[in-house]
Amino acid sequence: MNRRCLFRSFGALFALCFVIKAAQASQLPDFTELVEQASPAIVNISSVQNGSGGDDDKRMPEGYDPEQLPEIFKHFFGERFGEQFKQPTPKGRYPKSLGSGFIISKDGYILTNNHVVKGADEIIVKLADRRELVAELVGADPRSDLALLKVEAKGLPTVDLGNSDKLKVGEWVLAIGSPFGFDHTVTAGIVSAIGRSLANENYVPFIQTDVAINPGNSGGPLFNLDGEVIGINSQIYTRSGGFMGLSFAIPISMAMEVVDQLKTRGFVARGWLGVYIKDIDKGLAEAFGLDKPAGALVNQVTPDSPAEKAGLKEGDVITRFNGSEVEISSELPHLVGRVTPGTTVEVEIVRDGEKEKIDLEVGELERDQAKADSPKKQLLAKNELAIEVAPLEQQRMKKWKLSGGVVIRKVMPGPGADAGLVIGDVITSLNGTDIDSVETFAKVVKDLPKDKFLHMRIVRRGNPQYLPIKIKS
Predict the structure, then answer these.
(1) Which of these, 175, 225, 265, 418, has the minimum number of CB atoms within 10 Å of its CB?
(2) Domains held by the chain: number
(3) What CA–CA distances, in Å, run from 178 to 213, 215, 463?
């Protein structure tokens, strides 16, 4: 009797698990209709360079890219492993890269990544119906890694374009492309972050996803559940050379602004402010009288720049630009770059703890783009910061275009070391007072308040930055 009850219990539990699994499956998105509608507008892009290749060259599968080798191969065989496998094509030409793209107009405009077609002597677009057409490069923008192509054809299928500004973290997204040369491969995932800034990519607020992206997906579209393109797959952060990592896409709203300029001008004109900035941490927020660690701290203002002409100063904290909040410093280049040069915008700042508004005419970023007294021989070894400073030498003043400051010769345990100061740093400002000599530095340090964060501006290896510093009583 007990055994019978036990079997019944197991049966009920199994049935319950089946029902739960079925319910979960019913909640997952079905991408079949989206793929059927969108796939005809996705293209495979090959770019070739003129070159020579021997008849005895070894072959690898289409889409193979030696630069994307997993690190384990490079570890054992060296960085040049795989170069002997470059695939030749007729008349001594070989594929330089392989990627994806998508058709945005019926008359043949195609959007892809700049790195897919960079340096190509010929660009070949393979359509979903197997036709191969030679494409013209209308224009390319290396800063956003976008390229606009044009093929001679009419009545082509196109994708629907969405609004990436409305994208939210957690949304389902789907990518279609040609990883390793396998046309119309579909992968799905979710948006894991938005507005990401990557190293050396200051003008693109990337969409971060966990979608499986591999070499060959570059330039392909990223769709939302409504079947609209909301991004262009562009970069992979991985240690394996494959999809096991993070994927980044260029927002379509920003991309179409680039497309419009490439169509009309052949290049992209971006806004320019002329400031060097850094993030605000908790210590700097207190030192500059901010309610919270937010904004972009101005480390340096470029001479004759729009920022200088508008009255921005070193130590200003930009909290809002052209109506948009600036939470972290990396957001500011995105906002400035999207403004048409010559446009006057309102900039909100915090200066000496007080909020101010400044009208500023945005300049244009270049495309593909210092008076000092003789130092006195003296040192200041004993001070509240526990650092030894000396006059700044003339050579460094000219090299870094400085008008004053003192150089750190020694750092002892104390407030200076706690703030992160190192030998060779040049102190140009302390608690809002410019430092033009050892005497000025000694006087300012002597009068510094205790037990509160103060701001210090330094120049380290030619790069200005602010540090929070606190002297304990």
Answers:
(1) 265
(2) 4
(3) 10, 8, 42
Question: Six-digit token pair at 360?
Answer: 């500023």
- Are residues 31 and 81 in contact, defined by beta-carbon separation less than 8 angstroms? no
Residues 235 and 253 in one domain: yes
Q: Which long-range contacts (CB under 8 A, 24 or more apart) does 192-199 make?
A: 192/246, 193/169, 194/167, 194/168, 194/169, 195/331, 195/334, 196/248, 197/330, 197/331, 197/333, 197/334, 198/235, 198/248
Q: Domain with 449 in it: what CATH number?
A: 2.30.42.10
Are 281 and 330 found together in one domain?
A: yes
Is the pLDDT score of 459 beyond 90? Answer: yes
115 noted as active-site residue: yes
Reply yes or no on whether 184 is catalytic.
no
CATH of the domain at 216: 2.40.10.10
Question: Is 145 one of the annotated active-site residues of the chain?
Answer: yes
Judgement on whether residues 74 and 144 belong to the same structural domain of the protein: yes
Domain enclosing residue 52, as ranges: 33-150
Select from 330, 364, 398 the last residue of a domain: 364
393-427 pLDDT tens trace: 877 888 888 888 999 988 888 899 899 998 889 99
pTM: 0.66
Q: Tens digits of per-residue pLDDT, 285-332?
A: 998 888 899 999 999 898 889 999 999 999 999 999 999 999 988 889
Token pair belonging to 402: 């400085």
**Distance between CA atoms of residues 191 and 473, nearest Å:** 49
Active-site entry in 145, 183, 316, 436: 145
Kindly tell me if the per-residue pLDDT of 351 is higher than 70: yes
Q: Among the options 97, 100, 178, 218, which is catalytic?
A: 218
**Higher-scoring residue by pLDDT: 377, 398:** 398
Same domain, 260 and 178: yes
Query: Residue 57 contacts by C-beta under 8 Å, 6 or more apart in sequence?
Result: 84, 85, 86, 87, 88
Residues 169, 142 share a domain? no
The answer as to whether 13 is a domain residue is: no
pLDDT of residue 82: 47
Distant-in-sequence, close-in-space partners of 205: CB < 8 Å, separation ≥ 6? 194, 195, 196, 197, 251, 254, 331, 334
Listed residues 248, 264, 280: the one ending a domain: 264
pLDDT of residue 119: 84
Can you tell me the mean pLDDT for 178-205?
87
Same domain, 238 and 315: no
